[in-house]
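Students often ask why inverse folding is considered easier than folding. One informal answer: many sequences map to the same fold, so there is more than one right answer. In these notes we will look at a single instance of the problem. The structure comes first.
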């Protein structure tokens, strides 16, 4: 085998390895064994409750699905920048550009829902504004941030490749998994011992201290709390 052929073979192997690494799902960025965020698609009945749109028509539910997906991916674009490979910002921007017509229609329909249920004019507009704030807050994750970012990244990829006019279908399938991801969970293979760790501090009640020294009764209570109590001497 010529030296050139050997080098070409080595390069091909390296490209295959790199390609395989680059094709890893978002789960590999956070977990060895990720949580299961799969969930059935939202029906009109479950969506009306999950989205906070009681009494909504089928068209209003469809609009609510789209508007909630926009909110969820917007929050992801803001909260998931710590892991650039999730492409949270570019996915969100691409979704806005690709599905602008459906998003505009959804915004108008959601406003129409509140104009119908809360009152025309200012009451309906105020209710729609409050709804927007509420759904954004609902997708804000702290303890569940990694799971939320993973789920949102997967749905965001589906959104940018979906045909125009079908964003509501992506939302119907994906929002249930995003909502499921908001419940704190973590590594399934090895657990996350750091999450269950809590620091046991001694009492700072003045009654427990004298001249900078902890009194024996409080010392004993603290040792029992931490599991470090010494066995009684015979």
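Output (designed amino acids):
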């Amino acid at each position: 085998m010529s030296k050139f052929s050997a080098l070409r073979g080595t390069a091909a192997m390296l490209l295959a390895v790199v390609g395989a690494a680059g094709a890893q799902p978002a789960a590999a960025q956070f977990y060895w064994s990720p949580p299961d965020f799969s969930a059935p698609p939202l029906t009109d009945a479950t969506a009306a409750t999950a989205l906070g749109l009681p009494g909504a028509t089928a068209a209003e539910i469809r609009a609510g699905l789209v508007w909630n997906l926009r909110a969820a991916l917007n929050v992801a674009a803001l909260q998931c920048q710590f892991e650039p490979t999730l492409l949270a910002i570019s996915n969100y921007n691409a979704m806005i550009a690709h599905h602008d017509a459906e998003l505009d229609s959804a915004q108008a329909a959601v406003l129409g829902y509140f104009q119908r249920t809360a009152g025309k004019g200012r009451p309906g507009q105020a209710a729609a504004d409050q709804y927007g704030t509420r759904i954004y807050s609902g997708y804000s994750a702290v303890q569940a941030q990694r799971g939320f970012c993973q789920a949102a990244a997967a749905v965001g990829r589906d959104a940018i490749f979906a045909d125009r006019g079908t964003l509501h279908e992506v939302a119907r399938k994906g929002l249930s998994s995003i909502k499921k991801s908001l419940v704190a969970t973590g590594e399934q293979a090895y657990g996350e011992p750091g999450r269950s760790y809590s620091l046991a501090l001694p009492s700072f009640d003045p009654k427990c201290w004298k001249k900078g020294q902890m009194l024996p009764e409080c010392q004993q209570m603290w040792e029992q709390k931490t599991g470090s109590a010494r066995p009684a001497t015979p």
